[in-house]
């Protein structure tokens, strides 16, 4: 069950097949940029731009990279310094996330102009040309990271005069599938694992444990895919979500309000579920849910239908996936202390069966080893920005769902929700491990269907013990390859 020897990881093959889309993962880990709060999908691009090569960065390289970051990455308390420089006629060039909004007004005959915001500086309104917005349409969605050039115009308004994004925007899934065909399944699994930031060559991660780590990618490759992960502290639950893409929103600590999740009734701003591809609620056991009744109703509706409404607004549709991450305690055998009620330490409404039944699965994070220093990737993996965009692009490919439908049969007592959940999970594993769709029925059963059943079975186990209504169909879910 241990991963194979160091000499078998295909570093040179990864470089040969993916070229500039690959990177030695030691470069980011040695750069110190993680401590500077720069996510991987930004940092790896920067490092490759500033200092090309392989292996860990030397002292001079680290200093060069960090000097660049100090100058180019503004801090929140730099706002007034930068504003002063703008008033003195300087053109500022910074690297940050920029978003664009168009506020439609009911009065007046002027067509509203787009307005740019830079969250890291608390700058809410910058003028931006329509040509830039048309060129980079994702500015209107989750926003884009890039090099922003700012200047103050004669009327005293700050304007974005240029923007150079450095995130992958277009992914060729045909070429991605061709690339997959040059790797064995074991090699590809380890490439995915490494690209997530994990070291596939240490013995602590069995094939099963690797598959559960890869299961964290299911909400990225499947739209409207909702899952919980329950695990002890220190397994790296939130790491991939913090670093893979700005299309993933992570809420960790603080209050979760209806306005933040759904829609703000005051300014009509769409909430996180309507703007992102994945929303992650981290440390769920310690989050404060403001007005739970106002959250749970719309949330149950959204999990079931992909639509929600609030405060009298029309229904809002979204393909955003929702992820819940929570810490649980284990016993001496490293099993959950209460396997029959895994949710007992979470806010009470999580044990409401109508809500729980709407999740595709519960990921058994207790079967994933603790994330230690030696677990950090040291091989050549895919650049995180490319990796994240490739995963998200797979959401739009319906061939995988068709494959699952044609190759899976269920027992007559399996509920519709069970079937749909298993099919969605199996489709997601297909996209992650077999994006070229070249596999045998045995491959499908082992790598896709069986883990998909396990994810849903853990949900079924909880429902079975929480509500007698769920006992009529039995406890065990039966599905097989046809």
From TrEMBL:
Organism domain of life: Bacteria
Keywords associated with the record: Hydrolase, Protease
Species of the source: Pseudanabaena cinerea FACHB-1277
One Pfam family matching this protein: BrxL_ATPase
GO molecular function: peptidase activity
Annotated GO biological process: proteolysis
BREX system Lon protease-like BrxL N-terminal domain ranges (all copies): 16-150
NCBIfam families: BREX system Lon protease-like protein BrxL
Name listed for the protein in its UniProt record: BREX system Lon protease-like protein BrxL
């Amino acid at each position: 069950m241990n991963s194979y020897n160091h000499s078998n990881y295909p570093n040179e093959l990864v470089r040969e097949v993916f070229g500039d889309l690959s990177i030695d993962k030691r470069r980011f880990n040695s750069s110190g940029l993680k401590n500077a709060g720069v996510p991987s999908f930004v940092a790896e691009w920067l490092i490759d731009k500033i200092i090309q090569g392989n292996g860990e960065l030397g002292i001079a390289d680290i200093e060069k990279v960090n000097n660049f970051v100090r100058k180019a990455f503004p801090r929140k308390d730099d706002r007034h310094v930068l504003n002063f420089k703008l008033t003195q006629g300087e053109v500022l060039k910074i690297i940050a996330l920029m978003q664009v909004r168009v506020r439609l007004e009911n009065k007046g005959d002027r067509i509203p102009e787009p307005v740019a915001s830079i969250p890291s500086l608390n700058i809410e309104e910058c003028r931006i040309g329509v040509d830039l917005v048309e060129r980079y349409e994702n500015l209107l969605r989750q926003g884009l990271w890039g090099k922003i050039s700012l200047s103050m115009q004669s009327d005293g308004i700050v304007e974005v005069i240029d923007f150079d994004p450095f995130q992958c925007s277009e992914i060729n899934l045909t070429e991605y599938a061709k690339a997959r065909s040059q790797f064995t399944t074991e090699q590809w699994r380890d490439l995915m694992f490494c690209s997530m930031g994990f070291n596939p060559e240490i013995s602590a991660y069995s094939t099963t444990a690797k598959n559960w780590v890869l299961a964290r990618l299911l909400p990225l490759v499947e739209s409207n895919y909702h899952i919980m992960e329950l695990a002890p502290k220190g397994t790296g639950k939130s790491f991939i979500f913090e670093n893979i893409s700005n299309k993933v929103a992570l809420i960790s600590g603080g209050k979760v309000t209806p306005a933040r999740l759904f829609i703000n009734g005051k300014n009509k701003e769409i909430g996180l579920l309507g703007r992102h591809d994945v929303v992650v609620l981290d440390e769920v056991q310690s989050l404060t849910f403001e007005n739970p009744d106002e959250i749970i109703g719309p949330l149950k509706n959204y999990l079931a239908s992909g639509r929600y409404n609030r405060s009298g607004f029309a229904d809002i549709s979204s393909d955003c996936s929702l992820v819940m991450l929570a810490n649980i305690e284990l016993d001496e055998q490293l099993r959950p202390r209460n396997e029959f009620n895994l949710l007992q330490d979470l806010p009470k409404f999580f044990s409401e069966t109508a809500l729980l039944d709407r999740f595709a699965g519960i990921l058994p994070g207790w079967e994933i080893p603790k994330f230690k220093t030696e677990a950090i990737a040291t091989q050549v993996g895919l650049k995180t920005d490319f990796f994240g965009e490739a995963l998200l692009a797979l959401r739009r490919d319906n061939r995988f769902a068709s494959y699952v439908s044609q190759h899976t049969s269920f027992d007559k007592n399996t509920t519709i929700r069970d079937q749909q959940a298993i099919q969605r999970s199996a489709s997601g594993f297909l996209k992650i491990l077999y994006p070229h769709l070249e596999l045998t029925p045995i491959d499908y059963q082992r790598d896709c269907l069986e883990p998909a059943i396990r994810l849903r079975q853990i949900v079924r186990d909880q429902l079975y013990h929480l509500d007698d209504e769920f006992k009529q169909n039995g406890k065990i879910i039966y599905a097989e390859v046809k």
